[in-house]
Each structure stands twice: as C-alpha cells, then as structure tokens.
Amino acid sequence: MGTSAKQAQAMEKSLLEAMEASDAEGALKLLERSIREGADPWEIHLSLFPVVQRVLNPPFINPHLPKMYNICRELVSYLSKDKIGALVTLEVTEYARRTKMKKIRRASLPTHLISFKEIEVAIGENNPEKAATLMAAFLAQKGGPEFARRVLLLGSGYLNDSLGHSVSCTAFILLEMLERGAEDSWPALSALADYFCKGRFHITPTLKKTASVAGKKDPYRFMVRATSGRGIVNLHHPITFYAIERTRKFLNQEEYDHMVNAWVEFMGDKREGEVSLAGMKPEPIEDYGRFYELFSRMEAKRLTASLRGMISSEENRQKLGRFMVQAVCDKYQGDYNPHYLTGLGSVLWIVDQYRDQPSIVTNGLFQYIDFFFSGLRS
Q: Domain 3-97 classified CATH 1.20.272?
C-alpha cells in the first residue's frame, strides 16, 4: 500500500472515530480535508456504513438515519459529481451530531439449523445480542433474500404501532446490507435486532387475504389517498409504500398482496383528496438559479404548480430531481429532520413511477414540499 493510500485509510479511520464520538465539528473538518486532498465524496459516504447503522434519533426508537443512508443512494443519482460533496457533508453532520447505539457483542454463531421462530423468541425476550446472533446465523444458512423476506413479513404486523417504520426502516436497512454483498453485515443486523427488540416486533402475522390493491378497479386511488393530507403522519403513507415496492422482489405475489393490504389498513379511514392549484400560474424553470429563487419563496402550491409541468419527459424529471436534491442540500443549516431526505426519496420515486398519473404526482409533490417548508419555518 502506497503512502497516499495509507494516509487516506488513516483519514477514513479518524473520520469514523469522530462520528462515533458524536464530534460533529471534528468530523466535518476531517471530511473537508479529505475532499480538499482529492478524496471522492461518494467513496467517503460508502465508508460510513458501520457507524451509520448505530446512529439513533431519540426520543424515537426508529432507525431513521440508517434508512436515510440507503435512500441517499437514490438521491445521489440525480446529482452531478461536483454537487455530491454537499450531500455527503449534510450526511456526515447528521450522523456525527447524534447519539449512537452501544455496540452489540458479537458471539459465535450457533451450528444447528436456525428457524426464524428462534429469532422471534429472542426478540420477545428483549435480547438484542441473541437476536442479532441468530439473525446472522439464519442469514448465513438461508441467504439474504430469504432473510429479507422473513424480516419484512415480521415487520408487517406492526405498521400501526410504528407509523410504518417497522417496514420502511427495515426495508432500506436490508437493501443497504444486501447491496454490500460479502461485506460484514453485523452492523445492519445489530440495528435490526436492537430496533425489533425495542419495538417488541416478535410475531409474524398471518397473511391478510382481503382483496388486494391489485384487484381493485382503480388501484391508483390508493396512491391518491396515500399522498393526501399534510404533515408528518400523512407523509409516512407514501414512504411506507415506497419501501414495500423497493423490496417487492423478496416477496411472492401472496406476500406482496398481504403487505399492500397491511399498508391500506395502516392508512385507516383517511379520505383521499386532490390538491387544488387553482389560480397558481406555473413559472418557467430554465435553470437551477431560477428554481432556487422560486424554492426560496417557500410557497408550496406555487412551486408544485411549476414542477408539475416537468413530469412529462424523462429529461425534465431528472432535472426536477436534481434541482430538488440540490436545493434541499443548499438549504441545510446543520440540523435536519431525516424525513426531509427520506420523504424526498419517496416523492422522487412517485414522480418517476406515476408520471402518467398527474393527480398522484401533484399530491405527492405538494405533500412533501409543504412538509419541508413547514419544517424550515418552525
């Protein structure tokens, strides 16, 4: 290993140590120095995995920050290379300034064939170390897709108790862990074991057999409903479905229908509504400067009306995503609700997936933008 490689490795180690110690100022200085000396910001992001899985967001038990970490993989795809540093700086600040979960001791893996029921029992006993160890053994024996399937189904029984996080946080932690292939999975397993024990998520529900969204005459109405309403509770409805769709590949059709049915039940008796933009004249958005000027007015309906005109072509949808991600980074002042980024990932997914359903896209854009602007004002 050359001198420069050794120096980069030492810098990475120092950055992780500063983050683990919740030394945000020290971590930022190390990050800035690394980037100044030529380090790739995205490679720095990828190196943060073991510490990020232990970032807490008290008083909530939900692993919001590990979820945000994976969603940043989607957000970065919208950015040009010279803008990635701003996203990673935001990330490092958020991870570093927060308290960390204590490391769970790594025990020897049992040699017998592990049943998933054993994991559920360990969670019910509130024993994170035992649960994480059994998870690691089950993962080694059955493989990532089967482990993901079982954990997602376990989480599906607790959507109402967790505001959807028992699936939404779980899904993105699993995706990040599996994306890394042979890399050590213990940090992610520790996060899952700790979270499921805290939430007492220990009984896999029977599959819900009611008529699924896929069998409804107009399945899009459920997304209109999900994207209806203002505030953080309503924002969790599309985020949860976004997580279900992102992990659909691990489920068979019956299991997927069950997950969607659980999500529909989670929304309760919420009514659908379509955002009215009557009287809102769209303003042309030629470049980022013009967009940021409009964004900075913090008028949610006016901005939504202008963005709605950008969904018809792939090029403009990419531009919309780039402008939104960059603006959220540029507005950062050292303290963000993680839902500003997880909600952003969700709404950009909606813009892409439902581009032919303007009522869903309009609702989704307004719901997120209104939430973000309301948070900045508070």
A: yes
